[in-house]
Amino acid sequence: MALSQILVHLGVLLLLPPLLLGVIQRTKSRFAGRRGPSLVQPYRDLAKLARKELALSATTTGVFALAPVLAVVTAVMAGLVVPLGPFDAPISFAGDFVLFAYLLALGRFFTAAAALDTGSPFEGMGAAREVGFAWLTEPALFFAFFALARLSGSLQLEDMLRAPEGELWRDSTVALALVAAGVLIVLLAECARIPVDDPATHLELTMIHEVMVLDHSGPLFGLVEYGAAVKLLVLDVLLMHILVPAATVRGWLGLGFFVLGVLAVAVLIGVVESTMARLRLLRVPALLVAAVLSCGFALLLLGR
Amino acid sequence: MSGFEGPLAARAGLLLLLGAAFVLTLSGVPALLLPRRSLSGSRWTVRLTLAGCAVGIAGAVALLAASAPAALRLPGLFLGEGQLGGDALSGFFALPVLFVGGLGAVYGRTYWDPRRHPRHGRRLQFSYGLALASLLLLLAARDGFSFLIAWETMALATYFLVVTEEARAEVRAAGWTYLLYSHAALLCLVALFALQAQLGGGFAFGAIPATAAPKALTALFALALVGFGIKAGVMPLHSWLPDAHASAPSHVSALMSGVVLKMGIYGLVRTLGLVAAPPLSWGVVLLAAGGLSAFFGVVFALAQHDLKKLLAYHSIENIGIILLGLGLAMAGRATGRADWVVLGMAGCLLHVWNHALFKSLLFFGAGSVLHATGSREIDLQGGLAKRMPATAGLFLVGAVAICALPPLNGFVSELAIFLGLARAALGPGPAWAALPAAALAATGALAVACFVKVYGIVFLGTPRSEAAAAAKEAPAPMLRPMALLAAACVAIGIAPGLFAPAVDRGIAAWAEDTGALLGWGRFLPLGRLAVVAALLILLTALISLRLAPLCRRARERQPELPTWDCGFAGASPRLQYTASSFAELITSRFGWVLAPRFRWPRIEGPFPEASSFHSEIADSVLERLLRPGVRWLVRLSERLRRYHQGSLQQYLLYVVIALVILLLVSLQPWWPVERLGGS
């Protein structure tokens, strides 16, 4: 693969994520009848956080500072495994979907450990919820991957995600729709969105992701936010490839197509967040089980 | 018939292995001969153990490098069928025995200092050497008799290791359960080898032909699964394991969890390898047992409050993962799919190594915590990372490795199993392999939850007890073995290609006929994995180095800064999340299998008295199935006692009645007279 392609891939992967946050915010504002902040506001927020002073609780150890770093690194590495529209994944091998899932798990391990590192009961609560829901999203994700693998006949994420094109898309519409529904729920849960979690609230008792990072500040908090945005992009790409046969358009036009598709999924997330209420915490597992079942049934449909 | 065959490397390897077993058997003697509190005795014992392990490692490597197996016939022994041998599989399983065994001896000398434990220090060291020697002999045994002798020696030696602190009642109880389970397993194995001798033509391990009766093969499989499954701790045959592993001294727990359990796996691998044409159902049963053990092992682990018991339940989980690999390989042999065999077996074998490494690392870490704070209770620890930074860092490596997260070793073996299952799920036919894969995925996520809990509650936060606040770093002789184990975890994680040839040799020794000599690197790009691991570490290091000065300045500027407490001024360490509350969200979903027992606080009147909440999770199989079952059996036997009066006339009457019944029965047309030798 050409070096220039890798550079473009990296550029999109590193620069696009905050825009998604802006688009989601704009969608939610429009639903609420407001104009909302500028689309580039998340970039400004990150720049501001990078310049801010850092405060570290005396209780914390190195894990606390390591977690935001790993959140960013694992999300970016997961982004290297997926194709971005016409651009091939820089890292691709049979079984790379396992790497994808386990990289996200590595980020989760350290984020949750960092929450316990502060010794704060609120953050402990958030950490318990984060790991307590993830064990249902992982099987859903694997069922989805296995369904895509059966569709494409390949075990490389790149080919798996590009399979839903043309005739295949027409022939297995129902299975693909089920997989997409499952992956959407996984995305909403993993990225701490309504109806699982509310990124905008400040009530510690009701939150998952935000409450885990209460004590992070300054550049560390910037890394946390940025890592969450990259993870959102990566999962967004996953869903976009299942919903839209975008890879058929090659070259720079394809890149434009890809960005539009990704932003459209962001709008979809915004619509979901605006039209739904947050679920009660104890009801969340039911939603996640629905994701597992949805992807599992897709696999059954494909099992001929 | 006498002879010593095989290429030079294999013969040398076998001799070195036997020599190592000899040295290890005698390793406890210096300590036994010298006074109880003598340091030099235990030092000499450790030196001898290390020498034995070094010799054995040389032998194991030679066996792995040899082109063909060695066989040593012992004509005078066991009906003339006594036979020892060494092949790549023996070498592969012997390496972790010797590596972990040697490091455990070093760790144990400081952990179980003879000056502090004069009563049982010498017996512990002697049994330890004997256990290691019996493990090596077990790996070299090539006939049923020698195998059973080595097996029983291993069971007894480890029993004495478990009951080291026999003064405590719960240790004696755990040892007793272990002994009972061990002998139940032994009974199955006696039957197994009798059957194997009949099918394979002799007690020496020989191939069981495809023409064997299907019913006999099914019996063989069932006996192997139960007999070796008990030893390996497969659910639901695991009930002895958590208590035995938690009660033993920590370096013994490391040996038992890391290595001795693997002998159950070795036995399964060895005996199933003898069967020429296994049916597909065996693979499916193994996959089901593996999925069950992995998933419920980690569920039980999450619910534990005791650090070492929690680790013991994780062994059940990891044995399940190993069985998933073995099950896939067996399914591959039944259907003639070389890729399933290679990937499944690669995952199975590599996970045997990996689990030995990270589980011993974690048990050593748990031992150091116990050493420093005097308690295994997770909820009494906290903030140990500040007081024991080296132990905490090494434990973290083990925790990340056991969760199978990249870039460490656990990821490589689980990836092989996932990839094999994914190839099986591609079809043709229904995607049944997605089920074990999903179970494995859920298990992985639950393991993350469990080790976030362990690491977070024990090492992070603020101390929850005075003992934890006063904890001191473990001494260097206990840290060095942990550092070596952690280094091995990292090495396999970032350079799996270096260790691939050993795994390939092991696979080839097990399944010569499947074209498995191709190597698992053909299906799994190990070079790519190395790049990914290196990239992951490099990026993290780069950003961390950039951040380090910022963090240092922040700490210098505000060294006493508290955690944000949401404006609540009365924060105390007791406000922190506890291990039970952390796991509650998950364990509450599994109340039907965990059957937790609670003691709720009583809150009455306007001024309630001080009260406390208590919860406890017993092993469901033992408490809800076995104990009630045995009680019922005892009651039944007591009723039979009425007919047991001790008067001779009465007994004669019983004999007459029995004779009459037998005669009547034998008159029936369905009675198989000729099969019992009648005409």
What tags apply to this protein structure?
heterodimer; A: 304 residues; mainly alpha; 13 helices; globular; B: 679 residues; three-stranded antiparallel β-sheet; 25 helices; 5 strands; 3% strand
Please give a structural write-up.
The complex is a heterodimer of chains A (304) and B (679). Chain A is 71% helix and 0% strand. Chain A has 304 residues and is an all-alpha fold. Chain A has one domain. Chain A starts with a helix and ends with a helix. The mean pLDDT of chain A is 89. By secondary structure, chain B is mostly helical. Chain B has four domains: 1-205 and 234-272, no CATH class; 276-547, no CATH class; 591-599 and 614-644; 646-679. Helix content of chain B is 69%, strand content 3%. Chain B contains 25 helices and five strands. Chain B has helices at 8-26, 29-33, 39-65, 88-111, 121-140, 144-162, 169-200, 214-232, 240-247, 250-274, 280-302, 307-335, 338-373, 384-387, 389-402, 409-425, 434-459, 466-469, 476-494, 496-510, 526-557, 579-587, 591-594, 620-640, 648-666, and strands spanning 3-5, 70-74, 82-86, 597-599, 614-616. At the A-B interface, helix 4, helix 5, helix 6, helix 11 and helix 13 of A face helix 15, helix 16, helix 17, helix 21 and helix 22 of B.
Write the layout of secondary structure elements.
The complex is a heterodimer of chains A (about 300) and B (about 675).
Chain A: H1 3-15, H2 17-31, H3 41-51, H4 62-81, H5 96-117, H6 121-152, H7 157-162, H8 166-171, H9 173-190, H10 209-212, H11 218-243, H12 251-275, H13 284-302
Helix pairs in contact in A: 2-11, 2-12, 3-11, 4-5, 4-11, 5-6, 6-9, 6-13, 9-11, 9-13, 11-12
Chain B: E1 3-5, H1 8-26, H2 29-33, H3 39-65, E2 70-74, E3 82-86, H4 88-111, H5 121-140, H6 144-162, H7 169-200, H8 214-232, H9 240-247, H10 250-274, H11 280-302, H12 307-335, H13 338-373, H14 384-387, H15 389-402, H16 409-425, H17 434-459, H18 466-469, H19 476-494, H20 496-510, H21 526-557, H22 579-587, H23 591-594, E4 597-599, E5 614-616, H24 620-640, H25 648-666
Antiparallel strand pairs in B: 1-2, 2-3, 4-5
Helix pairs in contact in B: 1-3, 1-5, 3-4, 3-5, 4-5, 4-10, 4-13, 4-19, 4-20, 5-6, 5-10, 6-7, 6-10, 7-8, 7-9, 8-10, 9-10, 9-12, 10-12, 10-13, 11-12, 11-17, 12-13, 12-16, 12-17, 13-15, 13-16, 13-19, 13-20, 15-17, 15-19, 16-17, 16-19, 19-20
